[in-house]
Amino acid sequence: MPDPRLSVRDAGKSVIITAGDVDIAEYVHHPDAPDSESPKPYLHPIRSLSGAPMSSYRPHDHRWHKGLQMTWAHLSGQNFWGGPTFSAERGYHSRDDHGHMNHLGFTELSCDGERVVAEESLHWVSSRGEHWITERRRQVFHGVDAARGIWALDFSTSLRNVRGATLEFGSPTTHGRPLAGYAGYFWRGPRSWTGGTIIAAGGRGGQEMMGEQAPWLAIVGQHDEIDGGGTVLAFAGHSSASVRIKWFVRNEAFAVISPSPSFDEEIALADGDTLELAHRYVFIDHMCERDELEALGAEFAL
């Protein structure tokens, strides 16, 4: 059976990527969200090739978690993540510090049947209305393989500091909370994936991967309502900063994955300089064992 062809269609505030007759991802570039959720583009719903759910949206525990999105919880005193802000003195507390990301338009939105390319320009704007970052973001949907139930997403971004002063990219961990180094590209899994299996490169896995380095990491989870389960395989990829990418990953009390560029060490980006990041996510329509993931880790390595 031939692999389903990819296509893309404009839905006004979003674009929808389809493989055959299944909508596998919707990229919402003009979200309807309150300031407290740091409005920004996101991918949701994300589905496997069979249509099984592979993401969640505005869960009751964290309303600002939205599928797969580019975020930053601590950026020079601003919150581009959403929700409360952490400080060592006060813990998590509400502040009027929520920035937002404005989609300016697509510089490329193309499809040749085998891949969809979405390249866009964005501005990161502080809670005071100041333009801090000019971003060029590129997403490539590709690698559809019906026999193995696979499709892949490549995400890359260039973040240029236009603030007029150095920007400090951090996390709750850099501000005093242990093992809470979430930053950057962040995936929230379906509620039913809670308790799923974490498998990482080199024979490692489990919650011990929190704050660790590894070229790839996966969560294997089960679906509600429909039989079976799936796997999300994420690749740490690359950062132009000297700070190493480390994994923020949980399977309790919910499933999340983020290749964090500033897990426990801040990135200082001088005015006019650019931070470049590249990651890859592979969405798999079955529950993988380690041997299969090791092979896929080599096949899709960045």
UniProtKB/TrEMBL annotation:
Alphabetical list of InterPro entries matching this protein: DUF6807
Official protein name in the record: Oxidoreductase
